[in-house]
Amino acid sequence: MFIIMVYDVNIKRVFRVLKIGRQFLNWVQNSVLEGEITQANFEKLKIKLNKVINKEEDSIVFYTLRTTEYLRKENLGKVKSEPDNIII
Asked: What is the average pLDDT across 10-22?
């Protein structure tokens, strides 16, 4: 499946959320990651994120697509990061 992860978290937790997200997805731009992921790894990602966020302050939204067949991506302006397969 293809996941787009968008997050809005307290500045104290931004780096930790980004670091966890990049273990499974590609960083696209500030607070946005995307990529192909298995269901098992998606569950691992959510478990790890749940351990670091404050559910009273922070928000993470996942957009899930079964296939990228109907996904169209268009950039305007500077591309912050090209998706890669590097896992940090």
From this structure: 97
How big is the chain by its Cα radius of gyration, in Å? 13
| Residue type, position 65, single letter | L
Q: At what angle do helices 39-52 and 14-22 cross, to 10 degrees?
A: 170
Inform me whether the pLDDT recorded for 85 exceeds 80: no
Residue 40 tokens, joined:
């098992």
Asked whether 34 and 72 are in contact (CB, 8 A), the reply is no
Residue 49 · residue 37 · CB < 8 Å: no
Residue 84 reports pLDDT greater than 60:
no
What's the confidence (pLDDT) of residue 77? 81
Q: Is 2 helix (H, G, I), strand (E, B) or coil?
A: strand
Q: What are the DSSP calls for 6-51, one per residue?
A: EEE--TTTHHHHHHHHHTTSEEEETTEEEEE--HHHHHHHHHHHHH
